[in-house]
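pipeline/complex-builder :: batch 7 item 3
reading input block
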Amino acid sequence: MKTYLDCLPCFMSQALKAARATTGDEEVHRRVLDAVAGMTPELPLGLTPPEIAQQVYRLTYQIIGDCDPFRKAKIEANQMALALYPRLKKVLADSQDPLLTACKLAVAGNSIDFGPDFYLGNIDDIVETALSSSLAINDYKRLRDSIANSGRILYLGDNAGEIVFDRLLIEELRCAGEAEITFVVRESPIINDATIDDALAIGMDRIARVVSNGSDAPATILSQCSPEMLGLYHSADVIISKGQGNYESLEGETGNIFFLLMVKCPVVARLFGANVGDAILKYKKQKMKNGRK
Amino acid sequence: MKTYLDCLPCFMSQALKAARATTGDEEVHRRVLDAVAGMTPELPLGLTPPEIAQQVYRLTYQIIGDCDPFRKAKIEANQMALALYPRLKKVLADSQDPLLTACKLAVAGNSIDFGPDFYLGNIDDIVETALSSSLAINDYKRLRDSIANSGRILYLGDNAGEIVFDRLLIEELRCAGEAEITFVVRESPIINDATIDDALAIGMDRIARVVSNGSDAPATILSQCSPEMLGLYHSADVIISKGQGNYESLEGETGNIFFLLMVKCPVVARLFGANVGDAILKYKKQKMKNGRK
């Protein structure tokens, strides 16, 4: 998707949050805000929001002198989610449709996000709400059927902490079919997005192959991905894309993609015809490209 | 209160909203955003948020060539609120404590605001929520007692539409005491703030004296107010201040002030120890100045 004018003030807020995560020095915070405001007139709205966010965060990290301001918050998010894991395993064991429940939990886990100004409450409340609510867009049956017939599933991760919920869903995917599953993380730290370190910390490598996409964008920007990642992307039967960043970067691309996310801003809410805070499981039809499907 | 860094992206969002209210031309929207971003490094955070907002809106109105982009929305808000008036009158007639209920409704009316990015739902839902909820900060008893002993009440209005709810409260204030009540509006249009025209449109002049404060700020900035307004301010026994803008400009000033507002942003929520969307009726003690109370 293209960047909307509404995104520009949001980038400023995100930069401020990142600066505050590193230092309490208000002069540094101000310097960051002024620098991002200074970029604004030059930002091309034809790019996707994560492409611009990548520029904004690179500049911010340079000014604050910290390439991973959410380091500690990410570790805490992984630990918090791991502590929930046994209870959620039991919820799934008792569920009438564990795969559907795992999808809902995976979307709930997407609420762990330090980028947009979005707060739903504590993770226990989020889990309770997820279990008792419906998906606002629900292409679950199609996902279930696609999984059963897939040889290769590519699962695009999003945030630290959230990846524990992804692990639960991947464990259910393994019960629901025979596919080889690859879990994708970012190449280097950006916001609270998961990297290889996070995936290893929560044991993702024990249930799926884990690869980096080769990029430091808070998204999956194909033009920045490694050849290995592109090979996996184009040979996957089903792609599961977690979070708004992956959606923003991939909704215009080809691929058999299921987008699982929580809606975090009014712009994306409008695109889905949904509300901020809604849980989405949306299938996107593969586009025809050069006569191939 | 001083301006926080969090306010700077919010000013950009507000400017965008004002531009969109006047024109669908995205080039103009972009020009406005770029201009406000360009102001950012120069903005002195020692000023109150409405003082900066005043500069931002003046620049925005100049670029869009419209000194009142919310003209139509204000008229509609007055009409919508007037249509509710008979029903709310009945609610008050049936209430055990009509003055308290009128205070709650007056705060609910403060949700009609086109400035900050704040949306609670439609006005019927807001009224229902207000009637069934408690005030998050509740200095009502002190207000009731102060009213009973007051000769002069100065009521600082905020937004169009909302002033119908203020009229209901003023009608209850007249039942609760003998005070002379003056209702204050902005001198000229700014966002959706009420001016003399709005006050006349909803019949405020039939139940109170209506005066302009002499300023086009979305607030009560005493240094910009007319001598008449300052005389009224300093001779009032009780000041009722509606909305976040009036709070932001007056919380550092002397005066026997009751702040009635709905919390509309995380910054003000933090200052009150409350949540966004909370209803506030907060008394602020008069400061000593030059040995006088």
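note: Chain B touches chain A through 20 residues (CB under 8 Å).
queue -> next item
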